Amino acid sequence: MNFCSQCGHKVSLRIPAGDNRERHVCDHCGSIHYQNPRIVAGCLPVHGHQVLLCKRAIEPRYGLWTLPAGFMENGESTEEAALRETLEEARAEVVLRKLYTVSSILHVNQVQMIYLADLPEAHFGSSEETLETRLFSEDEIPWDELAFPTIRNALRFFFADRAETSPSFPLRHLALSPGHEELLLES
Amino acid sequence: MNFCSQCGHKVSLRIPAGDNRERHVCDHCGSIHYQNPRIVAGCLPVHGHQVLLCKRAIEPRYGLWTLPAGFMENGESTEEAALRETLEEARAEVVLRKLYTVSSILHVNQVQMIYLADLPEAHFGSSEETLETRLFSEDEIPWDELAFPTIRNALRFFFADRAETSPSFPLRHLALSPGHEELLLES
Ligand SMILES: [Zn+2]
Ligand SMILES: [Zn+2]
After folding, report:
1. How far is B49 from chain A (nearest CA, A)?
2. How do residues B60-69 score in pLDDT, each as one tens digit?
3. Which domains does chain B have, with CATH numbers?
4. Exposure string for A52-72, b = 16+ CB within 10 A, e = fewer
5. Which of A72, A112, B90, B179 could form a disulfide with A81 if both were Cys (CB 3.0 to 4.6 A apart)?
6. Do A18 and B128 touch (CB under 8 A)?
7. In what residue span(s) does the Nudix hydrolase domain sit (chains A, B) (predicted)?
């Protein structure tokens, strides 16, 4: 950030009065421009014994497999964001079951929220963001071709939790930082 | 937003190619300025049969009671944000028990995440943001002087869940919009 989005003057990076962190401050109009983490919402769609993955048609991680997920927009709930992204990226209509993973990804300032979801009909497709969408059983998961550690974690949790005698799919809570992207903070 | 924070030129509000929502776009440098919901993280601190509330020393809702919570910062996890806000606002050191409420507050573009937390020692205090901090038993809660519907919901859930024979404090998931700020979407 170089310029004030309110008045167009140059901003400077300093600690405002009463604060304890550096912010982009405009000395012309007094605006303080806070920067905060963004939410990525998505789904882990389950159809019978299979899960639905999308092959990315966009960077980063073009060509790798992921769960349908994307940035939450203003004016929607986390659930609505998860449903919208699943429809947009995988052309799939799912029913949310529960919030399943919450991952703070420190180095990119994102909080990823993945819902466990049921895909009642095996209807899905590709999109501008997705080269291909398909169902995978556990032994077909392309573990070496997954786009993000958060996706790998979510899938690992899912198959481990599903193997329980009475699966309850407890909320999985993670904090990920560079070099510690796998199961750093499990609760 | 009136000006591009990258180059300082005027931005216009329009739908970029490949998008389906209006964004602030800079025709000079090509930047697209997305705006997304912010996360508010906080705690519901429990000490014995009492809970800890803070009387706000800041607007909005000056003088009303709330749970310690505030905007999550870049570079921290949701847990770290909840702990930091509790320390800053209530001068209290808590131990997080579990993520308890997740509320999408549609009209202010916020997602509030409240952790159930244990306050081992009855040590707490006021701060720049807090006129007074004190413990309340259930029959002392100032229901008519609470700052936000999300706080009222969290406290209602807590006392209802605590009254169960084997309290499990399940995750409470809400979406709130104007006029529908109480328990709109419960799961
Ligand atoms: Zn300015
Ligand atoms: Zn620009």
Report:
1. 24
2. 999 999 999 9
3. 1-35 (2.20.70.10), 38-176 (3.90.79.10)
4. bbbbbeeeeeeebbbbbbbeb
5. A72
6. yes
7. 36-159
